[in-house]
Amino acid sequence: MTSALAMSQPAISEKVPGLKAQLRRAERLRKLKAIALVAPLAIFLVIAFVIPISNMLWRSVDNSEVMQVMPETARLLTEWDGKDLPSEAVFSVFAQELRDSRTGGGLGRIGRRLNYEDPTFRTLLTQTLRTLPATTETTWSETLQSIHPRWSETDTWLALQRAAPATTDRYLLAALDLQRGSDGSIERIDENQRVYQQVFVRTLVIAGGVTLICLLMGFPLAYLLATLPTSQSNLLMIFVLLPFWTSLLVRTAAWIVLLQSGGLVNTTLMTLGLIESPLQLVFNRIGVFFAMVHILLPFMILPLYSVMKGISPVYQRAATSLGAHPFAAFWQIYVPQTLSGVAAGTILVFIMAIGYYITPALVGGPSDQMVSYFVAYYTNTTNNWGMAAALGTFLLIATLLLYLVYHKLVNQKQLIRN
């Protein structure tokens, strides 16, 4: 028997390395299959979210126009102390690179960028280039100053210096109604020019109000859908999903027709004798709330319904049978189980509401426009991508911060109840 065991040990030792190799191959194959399954989703997220958001964040600090078109001028201006006029070398290099900027659309790029510093800067560059000689018998500083007196002003060159670095915080500061002073310190802009802080507050107020109204209306409706028999619940669910089958623009236009002075709402109220003159229900904050709640309410109901449908009524009945008041049983037993649906619905509605553009633009008034309106304005009208990206960046940061705070509060409530 001992000899038989001794003879079997080499056979086992020979099989063990082969078995390990097979296990390693099986593990590698399993990992490759998992990667293959996840890869399409990862690629989609990178293309649809990571790249656009990264591009937006970069554009909010991008300041490369002057650096690309006039690299030597930008380098010399960054070394300039900004006290007296630049040296003759700066004038000479600037004249040469300004002449070369006519090719490839360089003049248009730097003109658009410098117009953010001074709205007349592009006109100045065009006029200077039109009369700029190929050579000069005097110094280039004298030649440029003779072409236009603004080249003899320090402020003109300071504007060029501010646009010279490859990156800048100008757009981010401007999105918060801030700017850099002459000494480089951050200061608030003039009170009559402050716009964006109020716009951000208005956006959060409108989005928060719409979310709260949707929650107050959607919770009882979702509870009704979850507790009704299946046939009745399915019929009501059709009415919940019906707005998805209608265009957003059509629904917004329908609210304008309903809420206008001669619309159905005002006509009905006047016919019933409840009002004597038409109410102003459109082109103000009231119209914005009506239209946005109507559009976003299904996005609150569906997450709540999906969670409530999985909650067993046994717990609430048990609490009632043990002597608890029906409302106390509902509030203390049923509602805590719906917190995940409440969190999902509120976050979904709030994120969608905070970026709304068409509905406030059509139904609201001038004082009801949200951040998205100004993002669209800078993107489509002025082509100021830096300012549009800065506003979008702060909107993204505000959304993430509110989501983190809300997520932490929900987790704390769940821990306390558990």
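That was protein one. Protein two is written in the same sequence-then-structure order:
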Amino acid sequence: MQGFVNRLWYAKASVGYRLLALALLPLCGLFYLVTATRRLLFRVGIKSATQMPVPVIVVGNITVGGSGKTPTVIYLIELLRRHGYRPGVVSRGYGVDFNGVKSVLPGMPAREVGDEPAMIVARTQVPMVIGAKRVEACHALLQAHDVDIIISDDGLQHYALARDIELLILDGERRFGNGYLLPAGPLREGRWRQQAVDFTLVNGDECQEGEWLMQLHAAQWQPVKPPQGDGLSAAVFSVEPQAVAIAGIGNPQRFFNTLNQLGITTQKQHAFDDHHPLTLADIDAIACGAQVLMTEKDAVKCREFAKQNWWYLPVDAKIAPQFEQQLIAQLQQRKSVQQGNSNGV
């Protein structure tokens, strides 16, 4: 399904796909009417955004699919800590069935909290709460943890939460796709929304005027199942001839391209749908016992049943120092005022 949608929204579509997109345009109008009405309710005060007692940074996108939000959140956590802040994170917890809010603790299975929250906490040990209602998640986070700034993982369209800074993340290769709103295209909001955010980060490729280039740099390969005891010294990565690569992220081809750039050749590459709940049977059916290479986001879903020859590749977001300076300066200014806004509403 994800492959079909990607071809419809992002690829240089055939005549059949273009005709299908045009046929869906009336539904785009309905989607626009619903979202525009919702924004209007906030603008005229019928609905109100809740301001938190600490600054809130929203990291999100206006397109469906992976753009690099999770590496950006991890980057922000580390950046804010270097500047003396005590960040906490809230997120939806995509694909997890629960009521209210839930704290995410290190080691919790991805099936209980979502793959992205599990990955963020595993990497950073940041205080984190998930919940469909970001305002409730923020209140729970502030009540349970000593944090002085909140990062909202996704939530650009969650206008009930007032925000002090908005970061829009764009996939540099796919950008806005065919430019249509859902369901004919990938846009959750019109391209005008980019003009309302504080910063636009472009993940790879070239950025345009007013945008900041973000590059994901590959770190060292890590075993999905860390060796124990004397085995620690044996955890040395090398590519086996029959290795296979898997990726269950928004843009799997980005991971496969990274392998090519690293000079790694695999026997097979298999893309799962984003957030696919990986099982041992899923991977065995593809690998048949061979070495498996995967993303960090996939690895957190495999920790309980991983084999010794499964490896994942962490990536780190790198952005120009000038962006860091501008972000921190703007944050300090907003913090002194302690007055949120409703960007884009």
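The longest strand covers residues 165-171. Keep this in mind for the problem set.
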